Amino acid sequence: MQSPRPSPPLVTLRQGPERAAARPPVAYWHGAMLALLLLGVAGWSTQAAEPQALIEARLRITCKGEQTTKTWQRFALACVAAVDEFAGRALEPPRMLRIHFADSGASVGVVAEPLSLSFGPDDTMERVTHRLLRALLQRRFMAAEDANPPLMPSAEWLAAALTNRVLFGNRERDGRFAPDYEPARFAFQRGIYPEVERLLEHPVPPEATVLYRLYALHCDLLALCVLEAAGPDAGQRLLELDARGRTPPEALRFVLQEVLAPGETLQSWYARAAADGSRQGRRVSDTDSTAERFEALVTVTVAAPADIGSRGNRVPLEDVPQRLAALPLENGAIGRLQHDLFELLKDAPYLLQKPISLYSEACDELAAGRTRAARNALRAARKQFGQALARQRLLDAYLDEQERRFVPAERRFALPLEIVGRYARAERELDPELQRYLDTLSR
């Protein structure tokens, strides 16, 4: 990762990925079942996998226990659906993909077949999902006579993108995709963007769970921007170029060639496209984040003359006459400030939008050379922002209090409670006899 200025939340991807601590077998299966449950809550079908659907998807899944097998079948079909949604249905019937899940007492051996995957109890859900999606992407370009699937280096970052959608995509109950890109948007608002070519060519392994989740989130957002810029068939074209030996950056440049401005790089295009893409789904910024961004935009650092070592204090722009007078003389400075204020306005809570708009309009006075009128207008807009911010915080506190008073806990926590309940039911289905025995111990 690379950024114009340091930022702890994102620069960690520049470091070599550290392997996450190994999970014990029981923790893995609990985590796996919880992730599968979250898929059901997010909108994926949780009905028993139909044999015909498995035949059409060309999947063969084996593991110990009928209920566990059905659960993994549903999960694998959800992964197939995610790949088809991204790249379209394959024109030719795919090769058979065999997936084996070993129990805690079995060892996972080396599988010689090219389209066979084997997982053990120590494999994290991220690793299982990533490897499965990568195999599904690769087999689309594997002919019947091929001994091995094509290398397809782009399959790594695309598998990470789809892993984020499958495991953390927030698909609503009505099937609508409502992603949450708030961590990325928080960084974009501060001018911090990942290095696109690093995302493409230096994938983070899923074993590094925390870093991988951040990496997968950015890959998902990059894939979303590609589809929106180049059309719904961009995913298939990207994979075709990848299978023919193009490097990931070459493939992406080719797909985006008609939307890249003259001389524009992948990095500059992404910085332009990602800001809007990250607003999809749940996008309104919280009150404190909006206030912080507003202050960063409309204040300047002023150091005390006698204090050489001081980092200075943040002072409102309209209270620094020299800076206010110099702003119209800087090429494009006022335009950039108004652009940033407009970006903030789109993310801000409703009550804060009008004063932000008024501050931006006051900059027109500054651009016209009416410095005194601009100073008065900027001060009035700042005052209105302060009043609106106070009302917004009172509103936040009031709504929180009313929710606690009048909304029953079972409604406020309906979704988490549903997850817990369904998780418990799914756990019982794994081994009903064991659960009945545990019930007798708890009496």
Q: Which residues sit in consecutive blocks of at least 5 with pLDDT less than 50?
A: 1-48, 105-111
Number of helices: 20
Compute the number of strand runs. Answer: 5
Termini distance?
A: 54 Å
Shape: flat
Helical content stands at: 55-70%
Estimated radius of gyration:
26 Å
Enumerate the strands of the largest sheet in spatial order, edge to edge or round the barrel: 1-2-3
Question: What is the residue-averaged pLDDT?
Answer: 80
Q: What's the helix-strand series?
A: HHHEHEEHHHHHHHHHEEHHHHHHH
What structural class results from the helix and strand content?
Answer: mainly alpha
List strands and helices in order, with pairings.
Blueprint: H1 8-11, H2 25-41, H3 51-57, E1 59-63, H4 66-87, E2 97-101, E3 116-119, H5 125-139, H6 154-168, H7 182-188, H8 196-201, H9 209-230, H10 234-243, H11 248-255, H12 266-277, H13 287-298, E4 299-302, E5 313-316, H14 321-326, H15 333-347, H16 350-367, H17 371-406, H18 409-412, H19 414-430, H20 432-441
Parallel strand pairs: 1-2, 2-3
Antiparallel strand pairs: 4-5
Helix pairs in contact: 2-19, 4-5, 4-6, 5-6, 6-9, 9-12, 10-11, 13-15, 15-16, 16-17
A few lines on this structure:
Helices cover 59% and strands 5% of the residues. With 443 residues, it is mainly alpha-helical. It starts with 7 loop residues before the first helix and ends with a helix.
